[in-house]
Structures are given as C-alpha cells and as structure tokens.
User: Which sequence fits this backbone?
C-alpha cells in the first residue's frame, strides 16, 4: 500500500510546487496596464545601457541618455521621431534673417513641480544656469551673447555668430533646452533626488534604486494631460545586450536597445525592431600638419588611405542588416548626404597615390582605438588589414575604456584614431573635425570648410542650406581628414505592449513622452 | 570566545585599512579620469579642470586617501562622484539584494551539498561515481556561463522563472523568491558540488572508523549512526569548504547580478569601477572585507559549537 501511495504523494507535491511556481510566474508578468490601443495608464518599463550622468539636466547626458531628465523636464522645443521640431514649452520660435537671434514665445499657464509659474524670467534663468553649470553639453547652447526676457512670455537669445541649429539644440535631447524651475536652480543639489520641471512625470527617488532603476510618476498638473500615455515610467539600467534581450523577450521590459546579434533573436521571438542610421565610423587622420607622422601632411596620402578600405566587406562581415558601407562623413538620411558619393575602394589607385607621394613601400602609422563601443575592435582590425595591402603598417594602440581613449586622443600623441561621428546634418558632423575635441586634437582648420560652414550657418533658405551641406560633404572628402568606413544603425527592440515608436536619421533616439499625443508611445492593441 | 571576537574585530580594522590602501592605489593606476567620464567627449578642458577641483581630484594621492580614511573612521565613506549620493546610502540600498543572493546560495550549498555527499557516502556505488564526475563539471563551469544558460533555457525558452529583476522581500515574498531561484542556482552549482565531494570523502573516512563498527555491532540503527555520528564528525571539514565558497560567491555574485540585472553590490561595484567612481569602489571594498571577516568569524564559532576540543582550546 505504502509503496503505491508514497510516489503518488511525491507526484502530487511536485505538481503542487509547479502549480505554485506557475502561478507566481503568471503574477510576475502581470502589469496593471490597461488593455488595448488608445487606452492610457499603467507602467512603461524601458531600458538604457548606462547610468545617468546626472539627474540635474544641466549636467546630464545628451541623446538617448536624455531620457533620465527629459521625462520630468520639458524642453522648449520637441523633436519628433521623424526629426520634425514641434512646440513644447515654446509655442512658437523665429530665427532672425542672419540666424543670430532666436525669439521664443512661451506657453501660458504652465507650472513647475514646485508650483512656480513657467515664464520668461524662469526660462532665462534656466538657460543661463545650464550654460554656466559646467555640464558636458553646455557648448551646444551655441555662441550665446545674451539672453533676455523681453516680455512675460517672450525670450530672446542673441548669438555672436550665426547659429541656425539653435532650435534643434533646445530640444529634449540636449541639456540646455530642458527647463529647470526657480526652486531647483536655487538648490541644484536637490535636483539629484527630486525634480523641478514642467514635464509629464516627476522623478520618484523613493521608488528608484540609484544606478539600477529610475522611476517617474505622472505629473497631474501637466499642461496637456491628454498627451500622457502612462501613469508611471520606469527606466532600468541594463548594460548587457543579452540581458536586455531576455528582459524584452519575456515582457519584463517594454523597450530597449539591441546589438546586431541580439536583434536577430528579438525578431525570431516576434518582436518589432526600430532602427535609424546613427554613427559613421572611420579613421580620423588628425595629424594633418605632420607633427608626428609627416606622411599624413600630404592630402594624397590621406586619400590613398581612404581608398584602401574595403567598406563592403567590412559591412557584410559585421552585419549587413544594420551596418552600411559609407564613403562620406555623414550617414544616409542626414541633411547633406549625397547619394552615390564617397571614397571608392581602389587599391591600385591608392598604391599609385602613395608612390607618387614618395611612399612606394608604405610607412608605419600608429592608430589609437578602444575596445568598448560596438564593433570597434573589428573595425580597427579591418582598417589595419586593408592598409597593410598598400604597405602601411598599422600599430593599433588599444584603450580599454572610453575616458582613457578620450584622454589619449587629446594628448596629441596619436596621429590617427578610430572613433565614430554623428550629426543630423553634414555641418554638425563637420564640427567634429573643425572644433577642438577628440577628433581634432591638433586644431585643424581649413578655409574652404570654414567658409562653407559659415555660409550654411548664415543661410535662411532651407534648400540653399541643404545645397551647402552637400558641398560640405564633398569638401570634407577633398581634404580627407577623415576616411569614413561604415555607418551603423541604432537598433531598438519594441515589446508587444507598445506601439508608435519611431526613429530616423534626424532623430535616432526615440523618447516615450511627447507634448502632443500623436507622437507619444502608446499601448499596443491586444 | 569573547577574546576571539575582540581579536577578530581588532584584526578587521587592520584588514580594512590594508584593503582600502590596495584598492585606492590600484584604482589610481587604472587609466582614465572621472571628470572626463562625467562631462563626456564634448567637454572643454576648463570645465574638466573645474570639476576635478570640485571633486578633489587635483590633490596628491596621499592627501586624497588620507581625507577618505579620516572620513571612513568617522563612518563617512564619502559621496559618489557621479550621483552625489552618500556611499553608505548606496551600499545599504544594495545590501538586501546581495545578502538575499548570498544567504540563499549558502543555504543551498550547505544543505544540498551535505545531503548529496552524505547520501553518496552511505549508498556509494553509481551515485558516488556520478558525484565525482558532477563535481568536476560543477567546478569547471563558471557561474557566469551557467547564469546565461539558465536565462536562455529556463527563463526565455520555457518562461518558468523571470529572466531579470529583483523584488524586495517586504513588497512581495513570492516574487522575491521566484526572482532569486535562477541566480541562486547559478551561484550555488559550483559550491554544491565542492561541498558534496568534501562531505562524501569525510563521511567515508568516518564510516571506516572502528567506533562506527562498534555502533553497528551494538545494534544502533543505521539512520541514527549516519545522522548523529557520521554527519557531525564529517561536517567540520565541510564547514571550512562552505565558508570558502561563501566568500568565493562574492566574486560570483558580481557576475551573476549583472546577468540577471539584480541591483546588488556586484552591479554597483561594476558600474563604479568602469566609471572611476573611487569612493563607491572603496566603500564596497570595505564592506566586502568586513563580510569576509564576519564569515570567517562565524565559521570559527560554528567550529566551536560542533567540536568540543576547539571550544576547550
């Protein structure tokens, strides 16, 4: 008798345990989200790969990392996923004919989390604070000469030189445009544990775990309640692409970034991908004066290097779906991209150019790179291998962290380096090589490029400016400071409970909230 | 016993100072600059220098360390250079996660390892050989790899357990346990096999002793012999191994927490290390050092409980 009953009890116990586990699992995926498209409420859980640089918007990050501050802080202007600029705190804005003065008309009846009214004085104070706070993005405020509150609802920003991109840099992706309330400005340290913006959400420190989970709760005083789609937004910090993939596949996270490798498993699981051209990777030949590598002083040598790189093979090797061969400074889709233009792969011509320049047997070139970002190791090795075909021996100096790489790049000890550039038009991309920074440590300047850049900045006609952007693209290849290689997409995985996520070359970092509901992420139809 | 505890506490101060010196100067050798990490590639040299001064990074290394040590002796471990949060606050917020992981893992290692080892010693035969093989495999498999495998198979493919995340015990004990099952399994596998192997060898040694034969000859029940005599006498060496695996599981926890996205001390110290957040790295280092001291003290005290000879000495 007992021989029969004991196994039966064990089986029953096992079934009970599995039932409990199954029930608990079912509970774990349940979220109090409303059902179906068009409904609002519930929780949106999204992912970002790194911790926020700061929760104070003036010191925070740009691009995708702006999610930590753009949820609680409205920007003056909002950029949609398609790249269009639409009203946010500013209902209207105009640039003067010479692109040196931006006049913003502010929305009426908006209040900060503290209860203070958002007016011209508050915006002026916030803009001035962001410029002076010492954040890494302060430079994108532009050549600001003065900021004036000319009326309760009007702010005028005067620039010392033409700055046509001013409205773009006042969007939610840049620190300067996210407006902080007077109370927050009076006590900036308070912005690390609470928020004082006008945004759809308020930061909830009590529901957050620093470095891991950042929780934002609905702001019931938001100026357009109909635009709010979720009661709560949770941003989880998950750096490992595999963990991101697992979390989205199992429904624990609704949106997250992906690598080419994990994108495949996401699509196999029936999830949607949103992609947008982002980085252009290439070899920056910074030492154009030949201070360290005299060979790089010759433009023909630089062009030979650019022509020796087999872009198609590298793009295929990395991932043809999300990596695109590119022979010009900007990615396909940005303003100034020229169809069919770019450095061609021609080893024979590259060798000929090198021989004519006096280097028939090539030379040695030290190239700085790092091994953290995306596929940089593969790109670096491919460039080194291709340059070997024309006799140039590349000595790769690999850094193991981004800060270390930046420090080395600025040291002026490396004649060339591998690093991605990005911008929504070719003039923005060009500034990577004409303004001081990682990709221009030696302070290169070129009168033709400066002239074209100046013309583009001053131009008030969109078509004429686009034409100038294209000329910049071509002129950049003429000086050949940068040997572009590939463009890579930003890849995002969207869970089954979310829809209306858009991204483009002009805006490759989707954000969930928007001042107008038609641009916001929404609950997907069941 | 009191003297033992006092001695260990005194030793802990010395160890904390030594380990903090080691961490501080090793971190100073790591290339990179926190100010540059914070401000990014677009920052100007002026703004970087200004931030370096604000953070005290322009001071000589010895001065920086001295300042930290003085604060630490007062219980102030400083602030994160990134978030401005108190290091103590950051650590305390993460302790429940890592403590849950380590505690459950220790229980699994001790209970399952002991049971398997004892069973193998008593039953012998195929089970013993299987345990030998599994022990080797368990030792060879890194917890990080096991964690990824468990996520792919059990969480993503079978959807039995959550792939990532942590729930506080106070909020929902059921989801707390559910979320920790896979991480604990990944973290315990190696320890279970080591303890089982140690337990088996010790128990077989005890089983071969004369007094066991005498007990059997006098008619004492086998279960009583195993549980009262063999288990107690073979537990001491296993206890040492359990202690070592608990200390070793700190390292494993760093990896496992990252795979399962658990907001514990492992992920905190990983983020802090990659971003050159020295106060946080030092704070976690001090905490880990104290943890090792406490575990060793607990093992010594347990030795005394299990072995009267140790108590007397």
Assistant:
């Amino acid at each position: 008798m007992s021989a029969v009953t004991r196994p039966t009890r064990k089986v029953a116990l096992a079934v009970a345990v599995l039932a409990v586990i199954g029930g608990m699992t079912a509970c774990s995926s349940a979220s109090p989200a409303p059902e179906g498209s068009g409904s609002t409420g519930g929780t949106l859980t999204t992912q970002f790969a790194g911790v926020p640089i700061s929760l104070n918007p003036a010191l925070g990050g740009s691009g995708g990392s702006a999610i930590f501050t753009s949820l609680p802080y409205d920007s003056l202007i909002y950029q949609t996923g398609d790249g269009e600029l639409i009203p946010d705190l500013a209902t209207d804005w105009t640039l003067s004919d010479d692109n040196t003065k931006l006049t913003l008309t502010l929305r009426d009846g908006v209040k900060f989390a503290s209860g203070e009214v958002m007016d011209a004085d508050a915006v002026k104070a916030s803009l001035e604070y962001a410029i002076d706070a010492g954040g890494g993005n302060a430079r994108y405020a532009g050549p600001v000469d003065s900021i004036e509150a000319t009326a309760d609802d009007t702010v005028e920003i005067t620039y010392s030189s033409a700055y046509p991109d001013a409205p773009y840099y006042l969007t939610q992706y840049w620190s300067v445009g996210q407006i902080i309330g007077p109370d927050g400005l009076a006590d900036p340290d308070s912005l690390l544990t609470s928020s004082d913006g006008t945004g759809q959400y308020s930061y909830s420190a009590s529901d957050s775990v620093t470095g891991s989970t950042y929780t934002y709760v609905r702001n019931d005083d938001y100026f357009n309640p109909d635009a709010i789609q979720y009661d709560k937004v949770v941003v989880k910090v998950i750096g490992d692409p595999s963990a991101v993939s697992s979390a989205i596949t199992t429904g624990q996270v609704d949106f997250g970034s992906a690598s080419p490798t994990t994108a495949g498993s996401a699509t196999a699981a029936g999830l949607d991908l949103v992609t947008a051209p982002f980085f252009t990777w290439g070899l920056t030949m910074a030492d154009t004066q030949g201070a360290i590598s005299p060979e790089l002083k010759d433009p023909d040598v630089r062009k030979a290097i650019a022509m020796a790189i087999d872009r198609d093979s590298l793009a295929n090797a990395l991932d043809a779906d999300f990596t695109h061969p590119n022979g010009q400074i900007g990615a396909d889709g940005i303003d100034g991209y020229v169809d069919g233009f770019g450095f061609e792969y021609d080893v024979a011509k590259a060798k000929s150019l090198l021989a004519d320049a006096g280097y028939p047997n090539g030379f040695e070139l030290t190239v700085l790179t790092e091994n953290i970002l995306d596929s940089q190791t593969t790109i670096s090795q491919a460039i080194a291998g291709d340059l070997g075909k024309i006799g140039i021996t590349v000595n790769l100096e690999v850094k193991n962290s981004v800060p270390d790489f930046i420090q080395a790049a600025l040291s002026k000890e490396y004649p060339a380096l591998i690093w991605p550039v990005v911008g929504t038009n070719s003039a923005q991309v060009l500034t990577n090589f004409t303004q001081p920074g990682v990709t221009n440590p030696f302070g290169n300047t070129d009168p033709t490029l400066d002239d074209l850049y100046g013309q583009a900045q001053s131009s008030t006609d969109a078509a004429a400016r686009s034409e100038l952007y294209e000329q910049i693209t071509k002129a950049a290849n003429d000086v050949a400071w940068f040997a572009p290689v590939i463009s890579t997409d930003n890849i995002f995985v969207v869970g089954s409970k979310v829809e209306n996520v858009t991204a483009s070359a002009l805006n490759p970092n989707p954000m969930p909230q928007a001042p107008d509901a038609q641009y916001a992420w929404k609950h997907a139809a069941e | 016993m009191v003297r033992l505890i006092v001695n260990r506490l005194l030793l802990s101060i010395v160890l904390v100072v030594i380990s903090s010196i080691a961490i501080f100067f090793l971190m100073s050798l790591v290339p990179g600059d926190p100010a540059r990490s914070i401000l990014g590639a677009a920052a100007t040299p002026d703004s970087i220098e200004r931030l370096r001064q604000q953070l005290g990074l322009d001071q000589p290394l010895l001065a920086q360390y001295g300042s930290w040590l003085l604060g630490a002796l007062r219980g102030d471990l400083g602030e994160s250079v990134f978030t401005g949060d108190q290091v103590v606050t950051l650590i305390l917020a993460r302790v429940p996660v890592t403590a849950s992981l380590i505690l459950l893992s220790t229980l699994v290692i001790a209970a399952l390892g002991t049971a398997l080892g004892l069973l193998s010693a008593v039953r012998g035969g195929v089970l013993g050989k299987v345990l030998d093989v599994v022990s080797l495999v368990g030792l060879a498999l890194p917890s990080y790899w096991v964690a990824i495998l468990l996520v792919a198979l059990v969480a993503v493919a079978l959807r039995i357990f959550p792939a990532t995340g942590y729930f506080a015990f106070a909020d929902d004990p059921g989801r707390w346990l559910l979320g920790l099952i896979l991480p604990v399994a990944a973290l315990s596998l190696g320890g279970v096999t080591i303890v089982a192997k140690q337990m088996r060898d010790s128990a077989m040694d005890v089983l071969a002793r004369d007094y066991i034969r005498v007990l059997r000859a006098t008619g004492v029940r086998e279960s009583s012999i195993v549980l009262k005599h063999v288990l107690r006498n073979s537990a001491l060496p296993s206890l040492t191994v359990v202690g070592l695996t608990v200390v070793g599981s700190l390292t494993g926890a760093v990896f496992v927490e990252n795979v399962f996205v658990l907001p514990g001390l492992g992920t905190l110290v990983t983020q802090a290390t990659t971003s050159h957040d020295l106060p946080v790295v030092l704070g976690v280092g001090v905490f880990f050092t104290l943890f090792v001291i406490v575990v060793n003290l607990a093992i010594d005290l347990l030795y005394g409980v299990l072995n009267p000879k140790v108590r007397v000495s």
The two ends of chain A are 52 Å apart (CA to CA). The first strand of chain A starts at residue 43 and ends at 48. Residues 50 and 150 of chain A are 40 Å apart (CA to CA).
